[in-house]
Amino acid sequence: MDITNWNDLKMVPMLDQVSRKSFSSKNITVARVALGRGSTVPAHRHPNEQMTIVLRGKVVFTGETEVKTASAGDIVHTPSDAYHAVSALEDSIVLDIFSPARSDWNE
């Protein structure tokens, strides 16, 4: 069993007003993502199944056929290979959990 503190992880800029701290094991990546009000993560897809827990703020998830708004306390499931985009209606913090681990996020 290992313990890692968020404060010890490096903040990685992703996009304008979007940054993350992430930690991976062999099978799972956990990321704490900060999104500034008005920021957008462009539409994309990845092979990882994703669970997003909104810790603070309000974000809009756009899929191929639907748009959903999630607020603090909501959990959003994005299946693997699903098209999705995210935009922040206010300053927000989300916890993303990916399986399998994000091999493209090796810092």
Helix content: under 10%
> Structural class, please?
mainly beta
Dominant shape:
globular
Q: Mind describing the biggest β-sheet?
A: 6 strands, antiparallel
Strand order, sheet with most strands = 1-2-3-10-5-8
Percentage beta strand: over 45%
Measured between the Cα atoms of the first and last residue, the distance is 22 Å
- Extract low-pLDDT stretches: none
Q: What assembly state would you assign to the polypeptide chains in this entry?
A: single chain
List SSEs in N-to-C order.
EEEEEEEEEE
Gyration radius, in Å: 13 Å
Mean pLDDT comes to 96
Task: State the helix count.
Answer: 0
Secondary structure: number of strands: 10
Question: How would you characterize the overall build of this protein?
Answer:
With 107 residues, the chain is an all-beta fold. The chain contains no helices and ten strands. It has strands spanning 12-15, 18-24, 29-35, 40-44, 49-56, 58-62, 67-71, 75-78, 84-88, 92-99. Strands 1-2-3-10-5-8 form a six-stranded antiparallel β-sheet, with no helix packed on it. A hairpin with a 2-residue loop joins strand 1 (12-15) and strand 2. The model has no long low-confidence stretch (mean pLDDT 96).
